[in-house]
Prior knowledge:
The structure is a homodimer. Chain A is globular and about 60 Å long. Chain A has one domain: Beta Barrel (Cyclophilin). In chain A, strand 4 and strand 5 (116-120) form a beta hairpin. Chain A is of the alpha+beta class. The first copy, chain A, is built from six helices and 14 strands. The two termini of chain A are 27 Å apart. In chain A, strands 2-3-11-9-10-5-4-12 form an eight-stranded antiparallel β-barrel. The first copy, chain A, has helices spanning 11-14, 41-47, 88-99, 150-163, 245-248, 292-302, and strands spanning 53-56, 61-66, 75-81, 107-112, 116-120, 176-180, 183-187, 194-196, 202-205, 219-222, 236-242, 267-274, 284-287, 325-327. The interface between A and B is large, with 106 and 105 residues.
Amino acid sequence: MKHPLLLSVALLASCNAAPAPAPTKETAPAAAPAQKSALAPTEIVAAAPAADWAAIAPSDLLVMDLASDAKGAARRVVIQLLPAPFSQGWIGNIRKLAAAKWWDGTSVNRVQDGYVVQWGDPDGEDRAKAKPLPAGIAVVPEGEYQLYDAAFTAEAAAGQAAKDTLRGMTDPYAPGYMFRDGFPFALSGDDKATWPIHCYGTVGVGRDYPPDTGSGAELYTVIGQAPRQLDRNIAVVGRVIEGMEHLSSLPRGTGDIGFYKTAEERTPILTIRIGSDVPDLPRFEYLSTESKSFAAYADARANRRDSFYIRPAGGVDICNVPVPVRRVK
Amino acid sequence: MKHPLLLSVALLASCNAAPAPAPTKETAPAAAPAQKSALAPTEIVAAAPAADWAAIAPSDLLVMDLASDAKGAARRVVIQLLPAPFSQGWIGNIRKLAAAKWWDGTSVNRVQDGYVVQWGDPDGEDRAKAKPLPAGIAVVPEGEYQLYDAAFTAEAAAGQAAKDTLRGMTDPYAPGYMFRDGFPFALSGDDKATWPIHCYGTVGVGRDYPPDTGSGAELYTVIGQAPRQLDRNIAVVGRVIEGMEHLSSLPRGTGDIGFYKTAEERTPILTIRIGSDVPDLPRFEYLSTESKSFAAYADARANRRDSFYIRPAGGVDICNVPVPVRRVK
Lengths: 329, 329
């Protein structure tokens, strides 16, 4: 086996695999690994029993179909929306915008390398030309960037402490952290606030300067190192679970902060719909963040003992424990 | 001002800018920010005096020219090599490979979303077809993944403690950290080992299973969340300082771990040379990691108080303090 095995776990889990072997003459034959002392994270995920996977309701998905690529291939991006109680004001707006087909005919307008891809109304900043929003779009208070829900937090924290999943994980951005319902969250030191965080693939709500908090009509996805400085400063509403490459590999914009300079450079958006309104959508499930398999996976991410590694790190960044997602067979 | 200002600092520093304002009708006019209590990191970099910038010797650059893109535009990637004493065995090999024009006619063979782009001999894994390496390529012991250089470490640690730059920065992967000579490093708890780390844009050496350590002929660049689990398990040799978008926006491979399935999908490499052998290369400099400006920049990255932010994080990940680079005017 010359290549570490890639298992059929969706995008975020797959970044687990090691760089491929180097094609050098001095390389040992390596027909088989020298030793196999532990499972790799992808192997733990592949071995997880069906009971450790949780279904994602189609009504909790946002499906964006971009115009076909230069070769005529379809480009679909599937986003899982955050669970309640987080960001529900913005997510309510997003549901209204999708139902109104508001995004159809808009575009991807900004691609800044190592940072974000952003989409919505390309004329949004020109008040004379901006596309009107549908009725009923709420203004969300900035207090919604962080919340406290005792039951949500306590259940997650208790479950994870018992499982001893996350030893060796510290967070420079927050005193605490937890996984719940398929997403990572940060915690304040006094356990009085919980907030969703920005990782690779996270989807958030573009906004103007405070006190604006954004409507949800302009969205972005992180395509580089987790910009955690945005946590509690801007609304997180979900994460890309399939088709991330259709955003991350777009040509970078050459204007200020990655905006495209010409309309021709923008990628047209055909439609954005809630998943329950998309007839041909596969079903998805995530590795339950409350399961034993997730605990083992997180531990293996922090302590790589599979055959490629010689020194386990003994720690891990919360954004380096992406929650595995797969299509239901 | 509707867009946060983008200053002319090369790629890695530019990921600093905030997502653009949302084009919403309920947005306050925001012709000017409500308040301006502190400089943004990019503003600190723009204001840094000339003395705070350090020249990068062309002999410490590796320049990769890819085949032109579909529109005929040139694609050049510039890599700054790690300072001594780190990874010098592999870097010595890389200098020999460039001098022998060994990479000319090879290709980018793997693009795995959120992880790495990898290049070198596409036939490297087929012993019958692999391109022979030039004479004098060293086998580097794995002990070189981490080193201890008392003077290098002590000088950096003392300088940074005095500057109080990095308060609020913890690292889940290592007990300590430091910046020196334009790069981030991790430290062991007993200060007996120092090692370069994997961030967005880091360049490393592909290898086979241990005890192989790679020759340097197959290289990769990180295009997603910092895969810090690779630290001390694989050799870091530098980082991309210009042209990162030519790698990060390449189409993702659809084979195992992002390898392209067909030769046609690969991006040809025209040449790879050491910078001192490239006649038309601009001069580059980095914001000295020993300067007061860098200290202020790192502090601002950890505590965003510029007008877009409402809650400074109070901490920062070491990979979220990319060392600014610019072309010399």
